[in-house]
Amino acid sequence: MALIANLLLAPKLADSVAALHRRYAGLDQLAEYKRQLESPSDTMARLQADTSPQADVSEAFELAQQRLATTQLEQKADGKQAQNVNRDDEAMPPECEAMWMHDKYQKTFVDTLTRRKIKQYLEWGGGGSTLCSSRLVEQVTTIEHNEEWCKLLREQLQDKNVTNVNLICSAVEWTQFGTSPEGDGTYEEFHDYVDAIDTLDIPHFDVVFIDGRARVPCAKKALGYISSDSVLMVHDFQREFYHTPMLQWYEELEKFIEWPELGVLKPKL
Fold it and tell me: Which InterPro entries match (predicted)?
């Protein structure tokens, strides 16, 4: 499991892989999250033993590639990706199970996309959520800032014949940010990535999911493209430097008392 620790802690890859920004939250939070996902006690001992920020990026990226490659798309006979139908609560698309979040929030994510008719879904930060959402909604737009990760994701979409995803690779030159909350990235540092939504010629999105860099600027930017009926989801919403500014513009639709990993919000319009 040392490679899992590398994946979480390697500076470049943790920047690019959706939902892998745990390194900013501290080792205790990392350990708790991994316990919920994997349970075996020796996993955490190895995770704690391998905390070098200089972890092998190539090995971590290889693990991410293997994880993404194992997700399987079950294509419908008519060739359409989007299902957007009433689900059995026990059913979970396999690619949704590959998302890097606790299964409780995987279900919340899927329920949010299947409880209503979703025509346009946007996400900042691609990965497991891209493959998952492609099975549930008509049209997916993914904005990803890391060129290497974007290339891998595009290959996976092509290999699996996913045709309802518009993947926007808005490359941002890598800079080694600090470990402070500001390390998530400012608008000035990620303005092309944040503003990529302006180039899409899509006036309205039903659901927006934020799981990449510069999450607060992305949440503010999304206000111009959503309505009172739209939903904003934010991964790692429990972090104060995310939810405090975002709650100026949004209110919570669902409140989670324990480990509020996924924020489900609506705009204060």
Answer: SAM-dependent_MTases_sf
Q: Which of 91, 135, 115, 86 is nearest to 206 (CA)?
A: 115
How many distinct structural domains can be found in the chain? 1
For residue 172, what pLDDT band results from cuts at 50, 70 and 90? confident
- Residue 228 CA to residue 268 CA, distance in Å, equals 7
Name the pTM for this structure. Answer: 0.68
Give the pair of three-digit tokens for residue 92: 């979970």
Tell me the C-alpha distance between 158 and 143, whole Å: 17
Is pLDDT above 60 for 95?
Answer: yes
Pairing of strands 139-144, 231-235: unpaired
| Residue 2 banded pLDDT, cuts 50, 70, 90 | very low
Residues 6+ apart with CB under 8 A from 125: 18, 19, 142, 143, 144, 209, 210, 211, 212, 213, 235
| CATH number of the CATH domain containing 145 | 3.40.50.150
Sign of CA dihedral 92, 93, 96, 98: positive
Residue with tokens 């999304």: 222
Q: Is residue 139 part of a domain?
A: yes
> And the tokens for 246?
């975002």
- 196 secondary structure, DSSP code: G
Within the chain, where are the H helices? 2-9, 11-16, 27-38, 41-49, 57-69, 94-97, 103-114, 128-134, 147-159, 187-195, 215-222, 240-246
Other C-beta atoms within 10 Å of 174: how many? 14
